[in-house]
Amino acid sequence: MRQQRTQRDGQIMQKQQAKTRNIRKAVGKGINPWWYIGGVLVVLTGVVVYFIYLANQQAKITTTATTDTGVLQQVTHVSPTLLAQVGTADVKNPFQAVRKQQPLLLGPTGKPEFLYYGAEFCPYCAGERWGVVVALSRFGTFTKLPEVASAPNDTPPSVATFSFYRSSYTSKYVDFVSYEAQDVQGKVLETPPAAQQKIIDTYDAPPYTANSGYPFIDVGNQYVTVGPTYLPDVLAGMSQQNIAAQLTSPDNDVSRNIMATANYLTASLCSVTNNQPTSVCSDASIQKIVQTMPKSVTTSAGTTPLATISSPSDILMPLRRRT
Fold first, then answer.
1. Which residues pair with 308 in a beta bridge?
2. Helix, coil or strand: residue 118
3. Looking at residues 79-99, what average pLDDT do you find?
4. What beta strand segments (E) does the chain contain?
5. Do residues 177 and 199 make contact, with C-beta atoms less than 8 angstroms apart?
6. Rounded to a whole number, what is the distance in angstroms from the first to the last CA of the chain?
7. Distance CA 132, CA 128 (A)
8. pTM
């Protein structure tokens, strides 16, 4: 044991002597050894700062915030007069009718179900949610509606919008059922249960669309729409506050696209709620749209096709395909 201790002490001494010789060599060459130590510290500090920056950027992408109360007030209380003035604007009817014999789909509380299926990263979903919120607010109340922006590396990037993930909505007329399948980074966020997934698989597929994608909306299993009603490019570069502020006038591209989308959605809801509430559904502008909603037709062979495609969204504009 004494010999082993002596050997260890000798090894330690040799290492210390080697370090001393290296320092002396550096000093002999006119190089301050503390520069080596300082350089290492600078590099380590830079690495730490870089990873902190990445963590903060990651947090900005994946974390939703609380929607500003002023924005929530504006988007959930759009003037019915302005909505009537806009009508359908230049927006094509995005809906297709499902089979006539399909029973009305009822939601968790026995009211007609409005099913929304989208993803937080999707810019098309970002644009569509504005119209969905405006329309549903005519039938009920959003008490919680998180703020989010679509993926920064998509086109258009970072579209300001809302997320229906962990939102809160109540209505006497409609059961709002929503699923945000993926978060901003494309990671799985919500998975629809079997019954809802069957609806999505049935109608978010041929012959309703050539390619399944986001967003998808089913209104009581009577009407479906696949893909965006309008291109979200009109919202590019705008904040939530900027977009909401446009909803006080019918004379800009932002409000016209959002309000026209909301009017189509409102008409589809009136069709499944037996025109309730009358304060909304009896409006002449809404009834005009109701009369133009697509109807199922019977083929010459006497069979009913799955849908009448009046304005296929996969032809009018691109879909955000599911991954």
1. 97
2. strand
3. 94
4. 65-66, 96-97, 113-118, 140-144, 146-149, 160-162, 168-171, 175-180, 213-214, 216-219, 223-226, 320-321
5. no
6. 66
7. 6
8. 0.75
